[in-house]
Structures are given as structure tokens and as C-alpha cells.
What we know:
Layout: H1 6-21, H2 28-35, H3 39-45, H4 49-74, H5 78-94, H6 100-105, H7 113-136, H8 143-170, H9 174-185
Helix pairs in contact: 1-2, 1-4, 4-5, 4-7, 5-8, 5-9, 7-8, 8-9
Amino acid sequence: MLMSNTRDDLLDAAEALMRRNGYSSVSYADLAVRVGIRKASIHHHFPGKADLGAALVERYIAQFDEKTAAIEVQFSDLRRRLRAYGEIYLRSLQERQFCLCGMLATETELLPDPVRQNVERFFVRQTEWLAQIYLAQRAAKSASDRQAAQRAAETTLSALQGALLVAWARRDPRILGRALDAIEATIDG
């Protein structure tokens, strides 16, 4: 029998709430009820909400890093890697959960610095990973190739995040699927 880890339970509850409602709507009172502990006990694990938010985004980054590493191991060509990456977003939509950092990005001006900085780090890491897989498909690795890979990565991430938002708002997952198809259509070969 697995024992419950209160810290992880708090992060799980916070993630579920923030992915659906954003950072501002989550309170320690909500978390205490969801996890079944006293509100004061949460402060033992996370002295302030900014600590909770920063830890949550750090964990989310680590989880995404694991997913992208698995994609690289499982697939060798760009088209399959991009499809697998896009399927992360599709699963999120199917589970009625928005991308945590996409949701938090909508509140950038309201986020405490540690949370905002981690959200920014998430998007930088995703762009870097996408640029790396785009660049890996090129025989040459000139400065112009690196710039093209960076632009393609930024466009891909923006298209997926935006399509997720629109698909979420319209409750139509096909929108995200069509965006992924359009990204794939831009790949040479």
C-alpha cells in the first residue's frame, strides 16, 4: 500500500485547480479541503502561495522534460517528434486540463516573481527543445539554420498554445488537431 505524501498531494491539488481556474483563484483554504488537512499545515510545506506556485511550476517543467526526453528516445524523425509533442497538448485538452504554464501566463502581471520566472523558464525550455529537434533535422548547422530552427520552435509553441486556448474556449479538440496538422505540413520532406 502506498503512503500518501502530503507535499505531493498539495501540489496535485494545486495543479488541478490552477490548470482549470488559474493562480489567483486558488487559496490555501481550497487546498486544505481538497487534501483533508488543516490550512495551517500547508504552511509547513509551502510557507507562502508563491512558494507553492514556484514549486508547482518547477515540478511541471521536470515532468515536461521527462516527456520530451522520452519523445527523443522513442522517435528519430522530426515529424513524429512534433506529433508526439502535440499529443501532450491533445491529452491535456481531452482531460479538460489546460497547460499549467499557459494558464499561468494569462496572469503574468499578477504572479509573484518566483512563479512568473518559472513560467518564463518553462516557455524558454520548450522553445529550446523544439529548436534543438528542428536543428537536428538539418545537415548543416550554420547561424542561419539555428535562427530558422529558433523561429520554427517559437512558431510551433505559439501555435500549439494558441490552438489549445481556442480549442478549450470552443470545446472543439479538432482545432488543436488541425493546428498540429498545419505545423507538420510546414516540414520539408
